[in-house]
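Appendix C. Worked example: Dehydratase
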Amino acid sequence: MQAPRFADVNVGDKLPALTLPAINRTTLALYAGASGDHNPIHIDIDFARKSRMPDVFAHGMLSAAYLARLLTGWVPQTALRGVAIRFTGITHLGNQPTCTGEIVEKLEADGEKRVKVAIRATNQYGEDKLLGEATVALS
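Step 2, the predicted output written as structure tokens:
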């Protein structure tokens, strides 16, 4: 992977978007098995309905993992210095996640050249599901 260079990026530059397939029950079952998160709200429709939800919905950390994938598709994992996210909406079955990022600041810290990147995960309707910020070291 050829990471971008600090001198070659600017505030306002956008990361290549990551668009994923629509969330389905198989995705949720596979994520539950891989993560060990078997919360029934994500995999048991009867439990979800008893919890006043129309159906199961995606694990928040699945969407967080997609945001991490956006970042590591742009730079090596070793370049990440910090990631902070907050959950802003539920990702329902049939939602197609898209993860995006935009450079919002260039700085130097701890002897490194870094950028701050505003990151977000939305569905196909443009509704925010996660918002956050990542700090990335660039050469």
